[in-house]
Amino acid sequence: MKVSTGRPDEMAPGLRSLSYGIFCWLNRNIIVLRGFGAVLRRWPFVGGWLGMAARASAVKQVLLRPRSFSNTSHQANLVAGDYLIGMDTGPTYDHDRALVHARLDCLNVEVDANREAQDRVAKLRLTGAKSAFDLIENYLMWIVFRAIEPVFGAAAGKVSVGAQGNVADLGLQRQYLLEIRYVAGQLLAGSASTLDIQRRAELCAASLRARMQGVSGDIQKSWNVSDPPEDIERNAVGLAWISHPVTVQSAALVVQELLSRPNVYQALRLKAAEVGEPAVWSDVDFRKSVRDHVLELMRFRPIFPLLARDVPRDTEFETGGRGNAQCPAGGKLTILSIAALFDPRAVPDSGKFCPHRNWGHEVDLRYLMFGYGTRQCPAKDYAVEIMTIALIGLLVLPELRLASDDGKAITYDGPLMSRMQMRFA
Ligand code: HEM
């Protein structure tokens, strides 16, 4: 979620590419942002000057004041049209949020993600020894898709292939998943992304809207609501792009972080082997342990290390230092979640990798990767569950490593990973 402090539209193209390049580099090299966050935590008045909240106490306070620090900061990046993440609280927001909760209630992640993960694991066992595979295209993308597509109920098939498509056409489904990835990418990269990237996101957004218009009758029927078509379309479009791409990308980041910790990876594989199949897919203790690992891995590599907020009227925020920082009306505030997640004042042994840490009364902070307070991600538990199941699948496979022998193992598309080539070690 890009913080637009300047006016990217007025930038010279070279400068724009440079600032986009720096933004993408920072996202890929999160340790640099962590270092910057540590400096602002140490001297919070500097964060106050720069309009950045870094200490855990400051970040929580800001996120608990959505009227003073508004989500409308996301609006400029919502290429597919308005959606609740960029709205201020009010009747439309309340309606859309209730709808998300109702749709999420229809998910059965335990069954759907498990089924797809087990299928994918079986396929990889057959092919993985022979050649490298793309963790995103051949594994994560589909597990997340099958787990989340029931948000569209009986209309799910038509949503993913279009009103006239064949619901079994994997090519059309893949096209849909790319379409929503580019739209979601715009939320992350924001208005500073290059014009080419913006144009791609706008084209995909137009096609996503047309897709939902074509099947809005089916969606309405399956959601069993009497909302006007524009409300159905807004929510269908929003739900599509906000759910899948972020979860896939987060899962890829989780795996990337795990592979950078060979001891942790080996210990988990060992445990998976001890539990054995098929119990490994349902064992409560093992599931809990993997879930704890997922959350800790996300802490080290969150997909949204920063969040932005608009400041609608003059206010102040508590930096955690001696004085409050002024926030003039019309300005922006940056929330450095990555700094708060490593704040030793709130997180015991914050620099250490401790999946089973006792968070004590800061247990809510553990989920800061999903936001905080009333605007926190409504799907956090579902997303963590899906990633846990996907990770369990990887733990029962032969040992994996990044396949850098055929060139770069990870290919980036802006701040997002588009390919992650892996092979059995
Ligand atoms: C690992 C996956 C995910 C991550 C890391 C994630 C992260 C986040 C974050 C950080 C926010 C808060 C943004 C802010 O305060 O500015 C958020 C909001 C939101 N997320 Fe997620 N999310 C994930 C998956 C999902 C899924 C699967 C859905 C499906 C419905 C979803 C729906 C939403 C919605 C609707 C909001 C806006 C909530 C509001 O403003 O009231 N997210 N998410």
Give an overview of the whole structure.
The chain is α+β, with helices and mostly antiparallel strands and 425 residues long. The protein has one domain (8-424): Cytochrome P450 (Cytochrome p450). The protein is built from 16 helices and nine strands. The strands form three sheets. Strands 2, 7, 8 and 9 form a four-stranded antiparallel β-sheet that branches. Helix 2 (30-42) crosses helix 3 and helix 11 packs across helix 12. The chain starts with 12 loop residues before the first helix and ends with a strand. Residues 1-5 have low confidence and may be disordered. The structure holds protoporphyrin IX containing FE. Protoporphyrin IX containing FE (HEM) is lined by residues 71, 84-85, 97, 100, 104, 148, 239, 242-243, 246-247, 250, 303-304, 307, 369-371, 375, 377-379, 382-383.
Overview in brief:
By secondary structure, this protein is α+β, with helices and mostly antiparallel strands. Helix content is 54%, strand content 8%.
Query: Which range best describes the helical content: under 10%, 10-25%, 25-40%, 40-55%, 55-70% or over 70%?
Result: 40-55%
CATH architecture: Orthogonal Bundle
Mean pLDDT: 94
What number of domains? 1
- The fourth-level CATH homologous superfamily is Cytochrome P450
Task: Report the radius of gyration as a whole number of Å.
Answer: 21 Å
Determine the number of helices (DSSP H or I, runs of at least 4 residues): 16
- Low-confidence segments, ≥5 residues, pLDDT <50? 1-5
- CATH first level: Mainly Alpha
Question: How is the main sheet built?
Answer: 4 strands, antiparallel
The chain-level structural class is alpha+beta
Bound molecules: protoporphyrin IX containing FE
> Can you count the beta strands?
9
Strand fraction band? 5-15%
Order of helices and strands: HHHEHHHEHHHHHHHHEEEEHHEEE
